[in-house]
Amino acid sequence: MARGGLGELEHQTMLALLGLGEDAYTAPIAEKLEDSTGRRTKVAAVYIVLRRLEEKGLVTSLMQDATEGGRDRRYFKVTEEGMERLRRARRAYESLWEGLDSLVVTDR
């Protein structure tokens, strides 16, 4: 079992990658994170997180040539090891949340 859990931004970034599918490069990832969390997310911060995740073997990347008039882009994808880490994190959170629904106010 891998040591250490996923940091919040790492976890959210991996989920954003999954949600974006084929369009998972840095700018849309930052935009999805902002839309989903309501927090301003700098592209540079996302890039740093993606590199860290890649070093850990949790994501891979592939540079693709630019389309007409565009720029080359590095696209990211969650690895199978990354998927397993997300599954474990989800199970842990669901276990911790078990029985707490009545304590959490959801009317706001």
Relevant terms:
mainly alpha, Arc Repressor Mutant, subunit A, 108 residues
Question: What can you see in these coordinates?
Answer:
The structure is a single chain. The radius of gyration is 16 Å and the shape is globular. The model has no long low-confidence stretch (mean pLDDT 89). It has four helices and two strands; from the N terminus they run αααββα. It has helices at residues 8-20, 26-37, 43-55, 80-97, and strands spanning 59-64, 73-78. The longest helix has 18 residues, at 80-97. Strands 1-2 form a two-stranded antiparallel ribbon. It has 108 residues and is mainly alpha-helical. A hairpin with an 8-residue loop joins β1 (59-64) and β2. It has a single domain (8-102), classed as Arc Repressor Mutant, subunit A.
Strand order of the largest sheet: 1-2
CA gyration radius, whole angstroms? 16 Å
| CATH domain fold name | Arc Repressor Mutant, subunit A
Overall mean confidence score, pLDDT: 89
CATH superfamily: Winged helix-like DNA-binding domain superfamily/Winged helix DNA-binding domain
How many structural domains are formed by the residues?
Answer: 1
Per DSSP E runs of 2 or more residues, the count of β-strands stands at: 2
Largest sheet: 2 strands, antiparallel
CATH architecture: Orthogonal Bundle
Unreliable segments (pLDDT under 50, ≥5 consecutive)?
none
**What distance separates the N and C termini?**
38 Å
Helix content: 40-55%
Number of H/I helices? 4
Shape: globular
Percentage of β-strand residues: 5-15%
By CATH reckoning, the class would read Mainly Alpha
Structural class: mainly alpha
- Give the helices and strands as they follow along the chain: HHHEEH
